[in-house]
Design brief:
The structure is a homodimer of 248-residue chains.
Chain A: H1 32-38, E1 42-48, E2 53-55, E3 63-69, E4 72-77, E5 83-89, E6 94-95, E7 108-111, E8 115-121, H2 122-131, H3 133-159, H4 162-179, E9 186-188, H5 193-200, H6 204-216, E10 220-223, E11 226-229, H7 232-240
Antiparallel strand pairs in A: 1-8, 2-7, 3-6, 3-8, 4-5, 4-7, 9-11, 10-11
Helix pairs in contact in A: 2-3, 4-7, 5-6
Chain B binds a DNA duplex (30 and 30 nucleotides) through helix 6.
Chain lengths: 248, 248
Amino acid sequence: MKATVPITVASLKVACSQCNLVELCLPFGMSESEIDRLDELVGARRKIKRQQHLYRAGDPFEAIYAIRAGSFKTDVLLEDGREQVTGFQMTGEMLGLDGISTEAHSCNAIALEDSEVCVIAYSKLEELSRVVEGLQLQFHKVMSREIVRDHGVMTLLGSMRAEERLAAFLLNMSQRFTARGFSPAEFHLRMTREEIGSYLGLKLETVSRAFSKFQDEGLIAVQQKHIRILDITGLKRLIQHPSPSPRP
Amino acid sequence: MKATVPITVASLKVACSQCNLVELCLPFGMSESEIDRLDELVGARRKIKRQQHLYRAGDPFEAIYAIRAGSFKTDVLLEDGREQVTGFQMTGEMLGLDGISTEAHSCNAIALEDSEVCVIAYSKLEELSRVVEGLQLQFHKVMSREIVRDHGVMTLLGSMRAEERLAAFLLNMSQRFTARGFSPAEFHLRMTREEIGSYLGLKLETVSRAFSKFQDEGLIAVQQKHIRILDITGLKRLIQHPSPSPRP
DNA sequence: ATGGACCGTTGATCCACGTCAACCACAAAA
DNA sequence: TTTTGTGGTTGACGTGGATCAACGGTCCAT
């Protein structure tokens, strides 16, 4: 991995206190004086072009990353070549937490569009979180949230049918776009049908068919990657009681 | 929740430094002097009878737990009554990490047999991990390991077929029993077929059939909950290339 | 011992989703 | 403009695992 980052305007620091993502990112819930101290933590920023890796499974773990702009997917690939998307990440979300346990990354992080991340050296994070209580608390919450999120995906994969999964996915995207100040009802997906399918444990054809079905039923309007949610309560209803047999 | 613990022999502290689980539990990798300081962290122990809850989804989060004896399952239940097992935990493993993010537990933890846990007050853990570096590092690794484990389950649920899932489950159990000094090839499952199925995203009948099939093929010997692995490489082969089409 | 829950096994049938295949839309390259 | 490639849609068909159902084994509590 070519680690040398050219000293350009792009790699100049931007204080967390100045960043409009505080509400979503690591600093959330920290006091102003605590956030000021974060500025010594967040080093260079790094730009990643669409389809490029931020890190690969097996890379030595040195830093975690906060997404400043753009979006990513993480995936693992099994020995036999099968690939599974384990998550999609948006601005303000953290990448790389999986690497702490073995000191090597356990998945690949790939940009879905031209993106930019803040690089947070893990050794510095540990050091600083020993003295800044709010940082320690926040960091633990971020990790814990990741665990809870993964449990959510496990229940989705373990107990939902195709259309429920896609409905849950759309509602989740909607909610995350909303939190970032975008429309809850209209957004642009950055990932392909195949990536959505991999994430949801479905084949791309099944994803495509479910999109079409939702459209026929007037729940959404789909045009390629552009989604418009027309009936949010209808989508919610879908995931609440399974299609056949309204409770045994 | 009746929180008062009677002062009995059972609740007396047992130093981590004296515990035979150090290799598996939170203290792993810490220096002796650091482990000694853990003793101020680990408060009362708590006994949980089979089928009883250690905590429930929604309970306020105050402590994490290290399993001293016995085993647990964690599960979440969806609005419509469906239930999903998110994990099985054995001695030395930690419970309750999901509670940090929202300060309330997000799943239920239920003993699969009469069990005992060490109660680790979270506020104390935060405090101590600010001064004991090894504890901080270890705790972060434990959380990260949970994330990696969850990703493993996600790939299992998202891309494996029934028999592969069960094979992976058995190999995982075998490996964990081995790490605890038990036989890699012969062990007693504490959970029902239904719980295994819920964890693996399968119905109990499918689990049962897969067990029978493995037995017919000479891979394992099953007698109710007692499992003997006869051909471990055969099981491993199962999860490496999918049944039909040996790679496209 | 004995009745009753609970748990596990096995068979028959069904259907949701995967598979295979053809075709279309759009974007970048030539 | 045409060409080429990637991503998306749709149809026809097959199948893995769910569902429904019957029965057997084990462990308790009486």
